[in-house]
TrEMBL record:
Membrane-spanning residues: none
Gene Ontology CC, one term: extracellular region
PANTHER family: ENDO-1,4-BETA-XYLANASE, GLYCOSYL HYDROLASE
GO molecular function, one term: endo-1,4-beta-xylanase activity
Source species of the chain: Rhypophila decipiens
Protein name: Beta-xylanase
GO BP terms, alphabetized: xylan catabolic process
Amino acid sequence: WAKKTGMMYYGAATDTPGQRERAGYEAQYAKYDEILKDPKQFGQTTPTNGMKWLFTEPEPGVFNYTEGDFVANLAKDTGKILRCHALVWHSQLAPWVEARTNWTKAEMREVITRHITNVAGYWKGQCYAWDVVNEALDEDGSYRKSVFYNVLGEEYIKLAFEVTARVDPGTKLYYNDYGIERPASVKTAGAKRLVQMLKDAGVRIDGVGMQAHLHADNHPTAEDHENTMRQYLELVEEVAFTELDVRITDPANETSLEWQKDSYVQVAKACAKVKGCVGITVWDFYDPFSWVPYTFPGKGAAGLWFEDFTEHPAVQGVVQTLKGL
Ligand code: G3I
């Protein structure tokens, strides 16, 4: 139904079995995989963890693609579009990068270049898009003082995009962040500045990824989403909802599940309507594998399938919305 509206995909991110948020769920994998792999449910996937620096270059110059390949191969085997995530990010970074405080600029340039050359090079041709730089902004829209920024300033962002473009010219180059879904927020303004900075420098950027980790009780409307997307689309050729989930205060009840349904529906409506919105990725569809309860105790049920594999009301909400457009 998503494709019928002009979107390329409605997808779901997933993790490697060993990394899935809750151990002890092995008995659920068969049913989980059945839903994940069903092309009628999801046409796209993203590894929630496996392609991150911590897993791909745990030691300097030592590369490991096992975790990332799990999801890349799943995409290949089930005919799904693969979004690749994330080349340069301050979190889940290997300790050897993060912990060192005396990097020279030249060393840091070399480290970023080597990382991207190897990782984007390894999956060359397989990634529809790469989240080249992830979460480079603070809550107020200024640059986050990550190890990359502290050594190189905004140059690290340009470098990351330039190297990725060179290594895998066919992949779409995205800037990806959370809290950049609202039309008038300072962080949205920051994201636009970041994109403009790249363009002014003549550096290629193709897309903005709005993560969209939303709250059921205070979510943007389709108009908000449209307004935000149109602002980005003045600068880049496409946008996507890259990590959609909608958290609820425990325990979920009928009212909060209705709000949640509306949150998912507003995103679907907006993406279907705006031509440059290529698709939506849910940040794991199965509640027990969601990151939300671990990071925000007292919040949960952010996905689309409950623990017992019954569907949240949002599933039919989205299906009926897309069907009816
Ligand atoms: O590696 C261990 C594993 O050995 C253990 O069995 C397992 C069970 O507890 O934990 C594993 O580590 C966890 C890892 O996810 C894999 O599940 C970490 O503790 C946990 O911190 C880590 O969380 C990830 C989080 O990024 C880290 O910031 C989430 O799964 C992942 O969904 C989340 O994704 C991020 C995006 O990349 C960027 N945007 C925000 C989004 C949510 O935080």
